[in-house]
């Protein structure tokens, strides 16, 4: 979306652009500036994304609907689960993958702050 630095704008669902691609996730970019990225992400029922990290960006996730299951840490051995109304913080460079163990799609809002490329797909987490 073209915008001026001094202009307040709204991005409607039909205006969102495809976001950085990770297998198993539908990312839709709302805004991307020099230091932030924000968007909407849908993970289909029973889906697990590919392993990835967000480089120099730290992320805050808000779960709108469904369930978010995130694996991270050495060998992907740490797991957290979040549901509607929960916030999740992901630090810079944290390799993780997201899943939706429910029978309904999971919708989340993501806000990132940092610099550089916002998504890196990787083969897996570090080994312990």
Account of the protein in words:
There is one protein chain. The protein is mostly beta strands and 128 residues long. The chain has a domain at 39-117: Jelly Rolls (Sandwich). Helices cover 0% and strands 43% of the residues. It contains no helices and eleven strands. The protein has strands at 17-18, 26-32, 36-43, 52-53, 58-65, 68-72, 78-82, 87-90, 96-99, 106-113, 120-121. A six-stranded antiparallel beta sheet has the order 1-2-3-10-5-8, with no helix packed on it. A three-stranded antiparallel beta sheet has the order 7-6-9, with no helix packed on it. It has a two-stranded antiparallel sheet with strand order 4-11. A hairpin with a 7-residue loop joins strand 1 and strand 2 (26-32). The mean pLDDT is 91. This is Cupin domain-containing protein. Residues 40-110 form the Cupin type-2 domain. Residues 1-18 have a biased composition (Basic and acidic residues). InterPro entries: Bacilysin_H2HPP_isomerase (IPR052535), Cupin_2 (IPR013096), RmlC-like_jellyroll (IPR014710), RmlC_Cupin_sf (IPR011051). Residues 1-27 are annotated as: Disordered.
């Amino acid at each position: 979306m073209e915008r001026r630095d001094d202009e307040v704008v709204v991005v409607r669902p039909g205006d969102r652009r495809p976001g950085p691609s990770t297998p198993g996730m539908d990312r839709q970019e709302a805004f991307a500036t020099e230091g932030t990225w924000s968007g909407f992400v849908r993970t289909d029922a029973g889906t697990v994304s590919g392993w990835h990290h967000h480089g120099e960006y730290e992320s805050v996730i808000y779960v709108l609907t469904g369930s978010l299951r995130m694996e991270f840490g050495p060998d992907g051995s740490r797991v957290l689960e979040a549901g509607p109304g929960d916030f999740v913080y992901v630090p810079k460079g944290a390799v993780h993958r997201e899943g939706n163990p429910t029978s309904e799609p999971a919708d989340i809002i993501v806000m990132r702050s940092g610099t550089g490329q916002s998504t890196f797909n990787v083969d897996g987490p570090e080994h312990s």
